[in-house]
Amino acid sequence: MSRVAEGWTQRCVGCGKVYGDDVRSYVCAKCSNLLELVKDSPVSKTGLYGESTQPGIWRYRKALPIEPDVKAVSLSEGHTPLVLVSRIGAKFGLKGLHVKNEGQNPSGSFKDRGMTVAVTRAVQGGSKLLICASTGNTAASMAAYAARAGVTAMVTVPAGKVASGKLAQVYAYGAKIIRVEGDFDAALAITLKVAGEIKELSVMNSVNPYRIEGQKTNAYEIYEQLGFKVPDYIVLPVGNAGNISAIWKGFKELKEWGISSSLPKMVAVQAAGAQPIVEAIQHGRDSVVAVQPKTIASAINIGNPASWKKALAAIRDSKGTALAVTDEETIAARMDLASSEGIFVEPASAVPIAAVKKLMGKIERDATVVCICTGNGLKDQESVKVHLDSTPLIASPEQMVSLLAKTA
Ligand code: F0G
User: Fold this and answer.
1) 233 near 365, Cβ under 8 Å?
2) Alpha carbons 111 and 104: distance in angstroms, whole number
3) Does ligand 1 come within 6 angstroms of the Cβ of 299?
4) Looking at the domain assignment, is residue 280 inside a domain?
5) Tens of pLDDT along 130-171?
6) pTM of the predicted model as reported, rounded to 2 decimal places
7) C-alpha of residue 6 to centroid of ligand 1, in Å
8) Which of 266, 346, 374, when mutated, tests ligand 1's pocket best, judged by the most ligand atoms within 8 Å of its CB?
9) Which of 47, 254, 350, 370 lies at a CB distance of 3.0 to 4.6 Å from 259, suitable for a disulfide?
């Protein structure tokens, strides 16, 4: 196992126990909580933004726990557009509604930010066999970076519950696919158990703290794209809860390092059929009660989130909130975002838009709100394709002219 990079401390988020080497299981031997990587000294604003000309997340290398001489396994991830969506914003009574379009990452989701760091680290430590459990995007991302690194990838997915576009990606990138009977939670449990016993397997799920380090760069980008301003709200989908933990960590670092002077409120959004985090927040619980998940937003069809502790802290410490949206609200929001703004996202990525609509009147009109739209719409076409059979079919210019006359 590799030694943690100089200038970094790896510690348990529960009891604070420090680990000097990477930990294969990614959990504390004493209390079973997850681990986090913490930079020992601040990075300055120029250190973070000023010096590198490299595009994407490796530009923030000074804030990443990878030694300077290690070559990154990269596909030019990050640097995704932050788009002011004024038409939808006006409908919701908001002047500053933005979409961070993470679907424009190399494999089409935010997972690439964390994967480039985690795979770089795994390859640096000599790993040849990468594994993850996934609702689709982690698998696609890991498979892409494994291909880039020239190592083998193996993914476990809940059988029959992954969008076909994502599976097509995994297959094309050359990864081995194992289907698991049950949900993502079952796939993750099996994967972690087997990886615990077979030391050649390196787990790339977001329990791996290097993933979180890559994903936190989203906060650095948003801050810069808003003209070095912290948004009032970050609204994002929550499944296994790694991303909310990561983005909150990024904003906290900016403040702790003296670069920014405030923090956003973190708004966690889950599907009504898979809302263990929302329930914990609404009932004031200190832990999460696992549920049997059921939602059309297959990416977040998760009932037992691994990073629940970090997520509850992010929501509570930021004075944010958590809410659930129905599948109908999600599909309507997905269509609205695509047809009003030209941004096509997958169902899970539309839940923040549905949530902002639900919060209408509760968010101040002048607030800067950033919805993290996590994955590309092309990955999950199932719920849109059903409408295509009822589109007009013609065979002549005359028929087209008559159709046009009806449309005008
Ligand atoms: N949005 C999309 C498109 C996702 O794929 C995921 C998670 C999330 C949101 C939630 O992020 O788990 O960090 O809270 N997908 C994982 C996967 C679980 O396997 O691809 P999270």
Assistant:
1) no
2) 11
3) yes
4) yes
5) 999 999 999 999 999 999 999 999 999 999 999 999 999 999
6) 0.97
7) 30
8) 374
9) 254
